[in-house]
Amino acid sequence: MKNGDISNDLPKRVIIVADVFVNKEVTSKKVFKFLPVPKVSYTVNRQLLSNFYLYTTRQGVTLELVSFDLDEDGLTQLMDQLDTLGTNPFRYYASYESVNHLVNELPYRPEIVGVMDIAARQLRYGHWGLDRL
User: What are the backbone angles phi and psi of residue 5, rounded to the nearest 5°?
Assistant: First the structure.
C-alpha cells in the first residue's frame, strides 16, 4: 500500500538454493543382515534459517526455496520439516532440473531481486547473485 491506496506492485523476492543451508547425509542400513539400503537424511543449519527469517521481517521481502537435487515431493517434505521446526521463512518453493533452467528463467521474473547459492555457482546468476543477505 502506498499512502492508503492498494498497490499492484509485485513483492520483492529472493531465491535461496537449498544447498546453502541443508546438508545431505547418506547412511546405509542393512536389510536381512547383508543387503545395504541407502538412507538419505537432511540436516538444516538453524542459524541461517533464523537469519533468513529475521531478514524477511525486517526488509519486507519474500523468500523462495529452490533445489536442483530434490523433486517436488522432496521439497514438500523439506518444507514440512521446516514448518515443524517453527522457523520456516519460505513461502514458495520450486524444483529445477538444472542451474541453466533457473538462469534462463530469471530475466522473465521481474520480482526477483537476488539469488543466493553456494560459491561455486555464484557467478552464473550475473547481477542477481548474492553471497549474503
Answer: -95, 150
Taking the model in full, what pTM does it have? 0.84
Name the grid cell of 38: 541407502
- Alpha-carbon distance 12 to 112, whole Å? 6
State the cell numbers at 107.
530475466
Per-residue confidence (pLDDT) for residue 111, from 0 to 100: 93
Would you say residue 101 has pLDDT above 90?
yes
Distance from C-alpha of 8 to C-alpha of 119, rounded to nearest angstrom? 35
Q: At 110, which amino acid appears?
A: P
Question: Which domains can be identified in the chain, with CATH numbers?
Answer: 13-130 (3.40.50)
Task: Concatenate the DSSP letters of all residues of the chain into one string.
Answer: -BTTBPP-PPPPEEEEEGGGTEEEEEEEEEETTTEEEEEEEEEE-HHHHHHHHHHHHHH--EEEEEESSS-HHHHHHHHHHHHHHT---EEEEEE-S-HHHHHHHGGG-TTEEEEE--GGGGGGGGGGEES--
CB 117 within 8 A of CB 19: yes
